[in-house]
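Q: I'm writing a short explainer about Xanthine phosphoribosyltransferase for a general audience and would like to include a description of its predicted shape. Could you first generate the structure from this sequence?
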Amino acid sequence: MRELQEKIRQEGIVLPNNVLKVDSFINHQMDPKLMKKIGEEFAKRFENEGITKILTIESSGIAPAIMTALEFDVPVVFARKRKPLTASDHLYCSSVYSYTKQETNEITVSKDYLLQSDTVLIIDDFLANGQAALGLIDLARQAGAKVAGVGIVIEKSFQEGADLITAKGFRLESLARIESLENGEVSFKTEECVSI
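A: Of course. Here's the predicted structure. Afterward I'll give you a sentence or two in plain language.
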């Protein structure tokens, strides 16, 4: 998605340890027009999959998930990283390790909101080592729901996440695929330049 790539080039900041900071437009402050286009693009790519729910993880995945859900006219379910005080044992749970935060979280979704009859599209802001996406896939599988695919805003193609997801047989659609962050420069995989 060319507009997303341009925004990353203009405003993204490369930090040590292969971290790309995009908090000026995706995961702290958000660009609503860009988010709308992101939702439209995911909806276009998964339009014939019979999506009934969008599944994401708090908190940075929520905005692109909501915009995608608006296009499909379906609910968004987000996995919580901390068990709420109001929660019962009526939960699906999975462990997820965060590369950026260097911590493991137990993510949960209420069994009331993820059903066997659902066809789920998983949406998240980043794919690096794939742990968040695999945790969400695990939650959907516990519910017996069908996973139509995984939609990622920014994929770090030089890390193992994409290979892990596709090796398990899941469809993966990433809107910006980063080949390298070497020397503080963002390089994209050129075959994924799709203009919308």
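A: For your explainer, you could say: The radius of gyration is 16 Å.
Q: Perfect, that's easy to follow.
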